[in-house]
Amino acid sequence: MKRIAIFASGSGSNAEKICEHFADRDDVDVSLIFTNNPMAGVIKRALKLQVPVVFFDRKTFYHTGKIPQILQNEGIDLVVLAGFMMLVPPVLVESFPNKMINIHPALLPKYGGKGMYGHFVHEAVVNAGETESGITIHYVNEHYDEGNIIFQAKCEVVPGDTPDDVARKVHALEYAHYPRVIDEILTGR
């Protein structure tokens, strides 16, 4: 059985879609959800889905080996970032080479990097007059949004679209593609 750990800092809608995708499977299990935010919506979703939650603080994440140790002890095969707002430290990246992925709400390399997440990305896309946006699923390295790209999907941005309109289109792409790409990475299907 392949085991997934999800890291999330916010509402957890992508985490929930991933859990639902694998819910009836006997070959893949979402084993843990990690969060650095004790108020994150992902906690309520994890409880509903009966997935254990691991809380951690900044010091634990950046200055101890506790998180990689938990992941290794649990036999995690793939680390999935889903709305996780912290830069992953080198010790964690090195512990899971090419076994840690992220989803970004834009077509990288555009609109990536520190501070480019959620509404900030969609606002920048609209303000720049872009005619398309989308999602990028990529491997994680020590830099924000710079790992090798695995998959991209596009959506149209039309005149008059607000950042919220773009967000809705991008969320639809995230929900449709992230669980599927994770499945392909884990199972080769």
UniProtKB/TrEMBL annotation:
Residues binding N(1)-(5-phospho-beta-D-ribosyl)glycinamide, per UniProt: 12-14
Substrates-to-products reaction catalysed: N(1)-(5-phospho-beta-D-ribosyl)glycinamide + (6R)-10-formyltetrahydrofolate = N(2)-formyl-N(1)-(5-phospho-beta-D-ribosyl)glycinamide + (6S)-5,6,7,8-tetrahydrofolate + H(+)
Pfam families: Formyl_trans_N (PF00551)
Residue ranges of every copy of the Formyl transferase N-terminal domain listed in the record: 2-182
GO biological process: 'de novo' IMP biosynthetic process
Pathway: Purine metabolism; IMP biosynthesis via de novo pathway; N(2)-formyl-N(1)-(5-phospho-D-ribosyl)glycinamide from N(1)-(5-phospho-D-ribosyl)glycinamide (10-formyl THF route): step 1/1
InterPro entries, A to Z: Formyl_transf_N (IPR002376), Formyl_transf_N_sf (IPR036477), GART (IPR004607), GART_AS (IPR001555)
Function statement: Catalyzes the transfer of a formyl group from 10-formyltetrahydrofolate to 5-phospho-ribosyl-glycinamide (GAR), producing 5-phospho-ribosyl-N-formylglycinamide (FGAR) and tetrahydrofolate.
Protein's UniProt name: Phosphoribosylglycinamide formyltransferase
Organism: Dyadobacter jiangsuensis
Gene: purN
